[in-house]
Records
---
Amino acid sequence: MIKAISVKKPILICLAIILVASFLLSYQGVISSASTPKPSFTVAIDAGHGGIDGGTVGVQTGKDENFLNLEYSLYLKELLSSYNIGVVMTRTTLNGLYNPFSENKKLDDMAKRKEIVKQSGAEILLSIHMNSFPLSSSRGAQVFFKDGDTKSQVLAESIQTVFQQTLPFARASTSIGDYYMLNEFDIPSVIVECGYLSNPEEEALLVQDEYKALVCGSIFVGLLKFLAN
Ligand SMILES: [Zn+2]
């Protein structure tokens, strides 16, 4: 069951959507002037988890991370593509990328993701996840980068700054993360934890289409600001 959110939040979210939309409009000229029939650069979008690895599960809706990560990633793909940015997806279905007969499906899955991103020639990697924590009060979108990786840190901070302007529970800062999808690449790579499925109020937002549009729009604006600099 989804709890009704307070009257003020829809208004705030509408305002945030307008903010993101106006950012995107202001960048439309920059992007279209730089556009050629062939995308000038490519972004890899990695929807975390899949198949037997469903990730974390929403405390109220029971929707799993696998499903939501894919929904958000596909929305982001459409958004980037509409601005003539090339996109490669590590997965486009709910299935994992491992060989079903593999003895270590997790490792197999991660290796396949790495292969797809490396072979694509992508210049940026966005890995999309939903967070969770035993303490249900923990909440807030947060972007992770590899320790000492300056370019990834700048990208993470660019997205986090937009989150703070648009999302009601965004964390105050980015965080260092020691994860495969950050450690295995030389290109700017970030993990975007869009929010906590273990927090009932944030979960209620994360499953809404309007909120998905807001989060993805914010990631995109953060990306554009990073590219502009
Ligand atoms: Zn995850």
---
Amino acid sequence: MAVISFKCPNCDGELIFDPSSQKYKCEYCASLFSQEELDAMRPGQTKEAEANGQEPGTTEDGPAGQTEARDESGEAHDGEAVSYTCPSCGAQIVTDATTAAAFCYYCHNPVVLSGRLEGKYLPDKVIPFSITREAARKGFQEYISKKKFVPKAFFNKKQIESLTGVYFPYWHYHAVLDGKLQADARRLRVWRVGDMEYTETKHYSVSREGQAELDNLTENALKKANSKLAAGVMPYEFEKMQDFQMGYLSGFLAERRDIERQEVEGRMQGEMRSGAERLLRETITGYDSVSVRNSGFTPEKEDWSYVLFPVWTLTYKGKNGKIYYYSMNGQTGKVYGELPVDYGKAAAVSGILAAVVLILGLIGGYFL
Ligand SMILES: [Zn+2]
Ligand SMILES: [Zn+2]
């Protein structure tokens, strides 16, 4: 399986994807390169090298600033931890079966396990990080400073250093649906003549036909992902999705999917249909009551894509052993957190609150 590390054409240092410039940055000489510039330096070689492969375990200067190592013995069965050879130092890199980008444990250089993203696992699209580590760190500090009852240990520096940029896999669905809907609607009129009350009910049969385009339905594609965390940082600006490039992963962690489309397809199509039904139903107005008799939807167009979305995340193990999460959308900066509460601190404050309420109650009683 192939492992890529992206090397600076000037100094051979490590290139990582830089969220603020959206280019590749050398950590040593600070040079910046666009994807086009890297491609232009050694045109046409990227695909060639990937197609031909290399001898197991060899490391060799690759195309477009890449150093690639192939390690056929590293081929894994699903669900097994497996080892790769680091192209920079030759050490073994042991990973989970879904890891697609990581750091070498020994030389700390970023590595992209491109072999994990071949064939059907090659993502269609990616939203690259645009929030820098520094911005994510500031956001985290602001977030916890606004929260009360957070234990002191949560603020320590080491904790904040563990902030990690991760690309998570998702299924993205876009569809255009032709829909028909029939409904029974009523209009009531009530009037009085002397002691008599009259009610007139008019029944209408209403039908609607229309085309609904619904975009940007996404579903988590990784079993071990925390679903609250994944949903909490939504939505992304999906129109900014890019065609996938391995280089975007350099300097981050990345996971590949282990949930197949068939597992989520039915549920996502169902959601799409009920969304389309709601849109059609909302066009029926001016009645006192409406009940939908039947509806039918057929997809005119459907697009599925396998995508990677960026998240800054930090996990914290509370005293009770429970794991807490903080995460930030790596594109928009939207924050989601689940923070531990220090019950000692919380109890002291609620005691004061109760006392204040009791005193106010007594004063109120006095004046009454
Ligand atoms: Zn350099
Ligand atoms: Zn290494």
